[in-house]
Specification:
The complex is a heterodimer of chains A (296) and B (148). In chain A, the strands form two sheets. In chain A, strands 1, 2, 5, 6, 7, 8, 9, 10 and 11 form a nine-stranded mixed sheet that branches. In chain A, strands 3-4 form a two-stranded antiparallel ribbon. Chain A has ten helices and eleven strands. Chain A has a single domain, classed as Rossmann fold (3-Layer(aba) Sandwich), CATH 3.40.50.300. In chain A, helix 2 crosses helix 10. With 296 residues, chain A is of the alpha/beta class. Chain B is α+β, with helices and mostly antiparallel strands. Chain B has two domains: 92 residues, no CATH class; 49 residues, Orthogonal Bundle (Helicase, Ruva Protein, domain 3), CATH 1.10.8. In chain B, a hairpin with a 2-residue loop joins strand 1 and strand 2. In chain B, helix 6 crosses helix 7. The chains are: A alpha/beta (296), B alpha+beta (148). At the A-B interface, helix 1, strand 4 and helix 4 of A face helix 1 and helix 2 of B.
Chain lengths: 296, 148
Amino acid sequence: MKTYHDIATDGGSDVAGQVADQMARLSSRLARVGHVVAIMSGKGGVGKSTLTAALAEAFALMSHSVGIVDADINGPSVALMTGVRHHVPHPVPGGMSPATSASGVKVMSMDLFLQHDSSAVLWEAPSQRHAYTWRPMVEMGVLRELIADTAWGALDVLFIDLPPGSDRLPNLADLVEDRAAAVVVTGPTAVSHGVVARSITAAADVAGLPVVGLVENMSSYVCTACGHEEYYDRSGSGAAELAAAHDIPFLGRIPFDSRLALAADRGEPFLAHAGDAPVGRAIMALAARMKDYLQL
Amino acid sequence: MALQEACGPFEGTMSIVYRCQACDYRMAMLTNQMETQMVRSLGVKIGGRAREAAPMETLRTNLQGKRQEVAVPDRAKSASKCPFTGVVTEALEASQLQWTAGAQARMARVPAFVRPMVQRNVEDYAAQSGKMVVDESVMDAMKGQLGI
């Protein structure tokens, strides 16, 4: 009796060849992208997406061509934050059309395909039961499509806004191979530092991505009336020590400013109007350090 | 072995029966719902791709609750959602008659744009004549009618 292992071919489907074609398409797309930068954190709620949108705006203000892929397949937010939720991607020569924000940042997100703001992300299947067996594979394929099938044109930097946690990171590393670097974001609390420590290890040791550095977001609160800045931890040593312990650069601290959060909620550019605020200066300084790292 | 029948898919599972035309031996295959869905999740086409995948084909084809304005790739509109059902349906729609090499060679000389119609007519004729194999004698019998 013949067994599975006796099957010499897959009956002409050439599944391996089709998967290779998918990866070749991705490589071809990335060939026109200067740098891929993943913004990640093990902790949710530390402001990854807000920071990604602001960093992309900063690079655009410095006359770089920039794109963002919202890799949070199930909880996309970048389209809203960049004011492009209205855009419906459509086929154009070379792929699907990305949205373009008021700052000139190109954006691709699941959110652009969903009917309602409250639509859950569900995939066609005979049954949603036992979806844990196949859903991660769909999400991996969709992330590949969002990167590979968007008609980005030539980009200096493609930011990838990763969802909380580090489980998607190895997938991304497999997709982009040696093309990506990671910026890790933490909050100011010891809890956040503890969770993010694991992400740094995952990025560097598991996924093998070079880590640009660590950013501490919302490390202080700036009063919009008088400009007084109040630190969560005045010593500010926690994040810097965390970076030093993992032998990665500490890229800086970003204060919380309600105007930045409001701009993100409204999908409006922030830096172009409030770049001289402490948070604006901190983001521009962060972008400048990243530029040095990327040698742009 | 020739594909004899397919049942389903029912809740993601389908059965396929092959039959030996010489001895009537039958063999059945049963697809597994979760394995089928995993194959579908890969974004590959069972049976092989004749054309390159459309951009974001998996996303646009399989996402539920998408915006009405999102264009679904043309070939996905009519194709089966199940990768195995699709290829089996295509096989069932295709000929179940055996063609001899000589008959195939003659059919290859028919202009491509009318070949499917000619093939269907030849096979209908063979079936009506109780033949299990299309050989050159069947083609000769049709020659006068179809000019092949």
